[in-house]
Design brief:
Layout: H1 12-21, H2 36-40, H3 45-68, H4 75-83, H5 86-99, H6 103-117, H7 123-140, E1 143-147, H8 150-156, E2 160-165, H9 171-182, E3 189-193, H10 201-207, E4 210-213, H11 221-236, E5 241-242, H12 261-273, E6 285-294, H13 300-307, H14 317-325, E7 333-338, E8 342-343, H15 344-351, H16 365-383, H17 390-398, E9 405-407, H18 408-424, H19 438-447, E10 452-454, E11 461-463, H20 466-479, H21 484-492, E12 498-499, H22 501-508, H23 511-519, H24 527-540, E13 545-547, E14 550-552, H25 558-568, H26 572-586, H27 595-612, H28 623-635, E15 639-642, E16 645-648, H29 650-660, H30 665-675
Parallel strand pairs: 1-7, 2-5, 2-6, 3-4, 3-5
Antiparallel strand pairs: 6-7, 6-8, 9-11, 10-11, 12-14, 13-14, 15-16
Helix pairs in contact: 4-6, 4-11, 5-6, 5-11, 6-11, 7-9, 11-12, 17-18, 17-19, 17-20, 21-25, 23-28, 26-27, 26-29, 26-30, 27-28
Length: about 675
């Protein structure tokens, strides 16, 4: 493998030339040692030789598969195989009969679809892109930090890997492939939107492993059959794959609800090749969650315009020119964190033990239930590997202030508090923390242009304007889930100076499961256990004290109360949105509002609240956030849908009543006044 970058057999001269040409990019791997004494095991020499040769062949094949991936078929051969498959032939016959066209004509259309979809991965192009991207990253970023890749290497040779990153930027497509290639792993075939198949750029992406898909093809029977078969052939041959379960880039910065499409096609493909009885020899499919965190994202200004209601601009080659024009701007660092791999067979065996017996059904009932579970579990595992950076931390604090301004010393104390909370009670099993101290982080965020440092006679202030505050909300939302319980606990003590742990538990219990679903928080332990640890950590930091069987705010300590206020401010917008939605729903009899009407009325109330309170935060009244909240309430059993109408019962009424006591009377009254406004949808 020292002198070969493909599976093709080559002669000695060609290998020698390859060494000369590629001498600076040799990939050398050392495997686990094999003890000759154990291999011989008192066997005849001929048998021992065959055993050693067999073990070495298996070892080298696995290593080659890890680095080069499975053998790449010629693109034309692959497309011909897809079009000639039984599933696609059946679709061709059905479409031809339905449209009254000849089979040959529909077959040509299927071949065009295959040509439109299929990647054309090329090893020379991968090497070229590696060199190109290295220069690009050096111009854009101060560094790329990678965490957790080592334990994925052990899986690459023996399992089919499906990488599922969060989707925050177009850079995501390139960054993960670059990181994997640099670490000696085969870059995946990447599912990309057809909008990226632009002149020049599309061809380069296709040769780098991208295959293109239309936004929707549920009404195109033939296209769906071709795409499904193409995806199946990639997976069944063991090619690594990458796609974004969110569907599109997150404009709000938070994790979006997973879309079922690609997950469903992956499960159907896996079911086709899975044996009826589990066996260790079967090649397993493993999902690899990936969190990608930016200190400054290229598309931030475009996201802000879209949240304000502007139409999404169609991508074009001119966008590349615009990106090149930004190369002189500082973009800080970027982090790539690998989360806990999800073994698909084990997941299915746990949730639907009989799935193997129903694998041949065209519309297997078990898939309807398991696909949302799989998507939510992957989203939680992605969030579980979040990368905290300086911009995230400063945004969390600064946006919790009324006017986006804070004294530098208070900001430093609050940043240190957030850092300590994550070190003491990590919000995820694989999170990474920024290097340096609070003063360093503030300097970094100032250098990136998000904040202004202003000298004042009584001490330095940190502030930001309305436009940058809106941008910072995107970075806050990236990691809000890590501090959700800390913020919720602190918020409870805004309106309650003293609470017993049981009282606090009862106060938070209705909101916490909803918050976990909305923010995709992995909550492995019961709330009472997690809450006890959080209260003890608050006490260690001087935020609360335990006295006479109850927890209370320390009396007379203004700084501590300020810190509690800022910490509670992290979840206040989320709680306010929930309160507005529940109040909107409860003002009408059960079954009155449709799901869309409820989301739109709630969005209008949130927009009105933002305008009246002087908030420049378009994401606060983003319609997709309210749609996700309704979905979370449905999943928790607070409401249900019948004939496109939202119904609710005592569970929602009691939960809303208990959750409302979190708010102080003045804020609660203000929110109620907002929902009494006339003229809604």
């Amino acid at each position: 493998m020292l002198a070969a970058d493909s599976w093709q057999f080559t002669g000695s001269l060609r290998r020698a030339l390859s060494v000369i040409v590629n001498g600076k990019s040799v990939e050398l791997h050392f495997g686990a040692p094999l003890h000759l004494k154990d291999l011989l095991d008192e066997r005849p020499s001929a048998m021992a030789n065959r055993k050693v040769a067999r073990l070495l062949r298996v070892h080298f094949r696995r290593m080659r598969t890890r680095v080069l991936g499975p053998d790449l078929s010629h693109r034309r051969t692959l497309i011909d195989g897809v079009v000639g498959s039984p599933a696609v032939r059946q679709a061709i016959d059905e479409v031809a009969a339905a449209q009254g066209r000849s089979t040959a004509r529909i077959k040509k259309r299927a071949w065009r679809y295959g040509h439109e979809i299929a990647s054309n991965m090329s090893y020379p192009v991968l090497r070229f892109m590696d060199s190109l991207l290295e220069r690009l990253w050096n111009r854009l970023y101060e560094g790329v930090d990678v965490h957790g890749l080592e334990h994925i290497k052990a899986l690459a040779g023996e399992h089919t890997l499906v990488y599922v990153p969060c989707h925050r930027s177009h850079i995501d497509y390139l960054l993960l492939s670059y990181v994997l290639y640099r670490d000696g792993l085969m870059p995946p075939h990447i599912a990309a939107g057809r909008n990226l198949d632009m002149p020049l750029i599309g061809s380069l992406l296709r040769r780098g492993g991208a295959f293109f898909m239309r936004r929707s093809f549920k009404d195109n029977r033939l296209y769906g059959a071709v795409f499904n078969e193409y995806l199946h052939r990639l997976l069944s041959r063991g090619h690594p794959l990458e796609y974004f379960i969110e569907g599109g880039r997150s404009r709000s910065g938070r994790m979006l609800s997973p879309r079922p499409g690609m997950l469903a096609m992956t499960l159907r493909s896996h079911a086709r090749t899975s044996p009826a009885i589990a066996t260790d020899r079967a090649r397993g499919l493993v999902f690899v969650p990936v969190y990608i965190g930016y200190e400054k994202v290229l598309e931030s200004n475009a996201y802000l315009k879209e949240l304000k209601g502007h139409q999404k601009r169609k991508e074009s080659p001119l966008d590349l020119v615009r990106v090149l024009g930004q190369l002189r701007q500082p973009f800080g660092r970027v982090a790539v964190n690998i989360g806990d791999p999800l073994y698909l067979d084990a997941f299915l065996d746990h949730h639907t033990p009989q799935w193997r017996l129903q694998r041949d059904l065209p519309r297997s009932p078990w898939m309807t239930d398991v696909i949302p579970r799989l998507g939510n579990e992957l989203a939680r595992r992605i969030n579980d590997a979040a990368a905290l950076n300086a911009v995230n931390l400063v945004a969390l604090v600064l946006l919790s202030t009324p006017h986006h301004a804070i004294e530098t010393q208070l900001l430093i104390r609050q940043l240190n508090l957030l850092d300590t909370l994550q070190r003491r009670l990590p919000g995820g099993a694989h999170i990474s923390l920024p290097k340096g101290d609070a003063e360093t982080w503030i300097a970094q965020v100032a250098d990136l242009g998000f904040i202004e440092r202003r000298d004042q006679a009584l001490g330095e202030l940190i502030l930001t304007d309305a436009a940058h505050a809106s941008l910072l909300s995107w970075y806050r939302n990236n990691v809000l889930h890590l501090f959700a319980l800390a913020g919720l606990t602190a918020f409870a003590f805004r309106n309650n100076a003293r609470l017993r742990q049981a009282e606090l538990h009862d106060l938070l219990a209705p909101s916490w499961p909803i918050l976990c679903r909305e923010l995709f928080i992995a909550s492995p332990t019961a709330l009472d256990t997690t809450l006890r640890d959080m209260l003890e950590t608050f006490a260690e930091q001087g935020l609360l004290e335990f006295k006479d069987g109850a927890w209370q705010r320390p009396s007379g300590l203004l700084e501590v109360n300020e810190q509690l206020q800022l910490l509670g401010g992290l979840v206040q917008p989320t709680l306010e949105r929930g309160f507005l939605l529940l109040t909107t729903l409860l003002r009408k009899p059960s079954g009155t509002l449709s799901q869309d009407a409820l989301a739109e009325q709630s969005r209008q109330f949130a927009e009105r609240l933002a305008l009246l309170s002087g908030r420049e935060a378009p994401e606060f009244f983003d319609a997709r956030v309210f749609a996700g909240l309704i979905e979370s309430l449905h999943d928790e059993g607070w409401l249900w849908l019948e004939q496109d109408r939202v119904h609710y019962g005592s569970t929602l009424e009691q939960g809303a009543r208990r959750a409302s006591t979190l708010f102080d009377p003045a804020l609660r009254q203000r929110l109620l006044q907002i929902t009494e406004t006339q003229g809604s949808v």
